[in-house]
Records
---
Amino acid sequence: GGEVGDRAEWVSETRPGVRGASEVTAVEDGGQCMTVTDIVIVDGEETRAPKRMCRRPPSNRYVRV
């Protein structure tokens, strides 16, 4: 992951009619940071919530900032 347009979709196992996706919408700082937009769809109504994720050395994982 980590490329603009990467998308992970999910469906709630506990709440009927709830699904969504997380999509990479921007990559910054040479790939060190990215904006991931969480898309939640409840009964057909879409809510978007962007969050910023950055790599924090020495760990190579992205963490929310």
---
Amino acid sequence: MPKTNLNANTHSWDEFMSIDSSVEVLIVDNNVCNDKCLTELDLSLFTSMKVLEVGDYSFSFVNEVKLIGLNQLERVVIGQKSFTKYKNDAAYDLKRHFYLKNCERVKELKMGCYSFSDYFVCEIENVPSLEVIEMGELNEKSFNFLYASLELKSDCERMK
């Protein structure tokens, strides 16, 4: 019986669409998935995914990113100028939302400068293992979620 490849490195939208849902490490190359028709990225089917890495200049037209209920997810790394239409600036778009929720093992969320620079919502909720959040670079213009309010929520906090 052939072994499923647990790592996927994608260089195009067609490759991305053909990835097996059992992948554990998903790497998206630079300047990929910039089709205007691609407006939502819901990765909830990738229930075995442990690592998500997105390169620079990718997913420009995605309005909504959902990383929800990925109980194996440990690490999310987004390069520079991804998930934004404004590669060297910032704006806000009420339709653009980022969700990282109910991912019990995620320890690390990192993103490069200008990524998500026009997103209006950033919700990080019920991620009890989260140890590192890095948005942009210290002492550099970064503009990550510039017009969004950042909320960190936990079910434990609600019980107090």
---
Amino acid sequence: MLFGEEGGITVIGEVCQGKILPLSLELLGAAKKLAQEMNCPVSFVFAGWKMDAEVMKMKHYGIDEIFYLEDKRLQEKQKEFHREAMIGY
């Protein structure tokens, strides 16, 4: 597991209505470029509910590790659920 490995880069993706937001993908692109210069791994973390298609899409971005936290409460548009999922797991 690379997550949290010293020298690695982790991008936390933002999700809205079951989709990873374009800004998260832009950050991921910048992280990959920086990681290539630093010769280190890139991890991508996001949380949601029933986002299997998004998980599959992310596999094509050349990320070293993808972490997807799935919780039914995350279908709600309540930020505290997302914060709990990302911090509490």
